Amino acid sequence: MATKQILRAQLRSYPANGHSAYLPQARKIVLEYCQNLPSSTNTRTFILNDLQRVAWQNPHVEFVVKQRNGHEPIARGLYVNGRDKVIPLQEFEVNGVEKKVQLLLDSSGAKIKQLKKGRIVESTTEAARGIWSGLHVDTPFKI
């Protein structure tokens, strides 16, 4: 009886999002602002006061600050799947700018798609307990 060798490369596991691991999807956040426009005031304040703290909290993301004179402020998120998302920042207060940067950090970068008609939740696995119905219990459900 011959035994089959197990090569070291066959024992490697590939990272994937799941219940035991999380891979951040955002790889770069670019903040673009104008030095002179009044609509960029809150974005400049966020960059001066709060950006360093946000960068320390997210060491896996590269933060880039660009000065673009004559343009409205924007935040651009670049993701590992090659997509990007752009959010204009001219209408937000300082805490609103931070919330939009956090939204880009938490986003997956996937294209937003509408749910199919009649289906509320899509899943790759079935529910552990199945679908609940008031008709399948010993005593019927009463309202």
UniProtKB/TrEMBL annotation:
Keyword Ribonucleoprotein in record: yes
Top-level taxon of origin: Eukaryota
Domain Ribosomal protein/NADH dehydrogenase: 35-108
Any Pfam family: L51_S25_CI-B8
GO terms for cellular component: mitochondrial large ribosomal subunit
Molecular function, one GO term: structural constituent of ribosome
Claim: Mitochondrion is one of the keywords in the record: yes
Chief location category: mitochondrion
Any Gene Ontology biological process: mitochondrial translation
Entry's localization field: Mitochondrion
Keywords: Mitochondrion, Ribonucleoprotein, Ribosomal protein
UniProt cross-references to InterPro entries, sorted A to Z: Ribosomal_mL43, Ribosomal_mL43/mS25/NADH_DH, Thioredoxin-like_sf
Similarity field: Belongs to the mitochondrion-specific ribosomal protein mL43 family.
Protein name listed in UniProt: Large ribosomal subunit protein mL43
The species this protein was found in: Suillus placidus
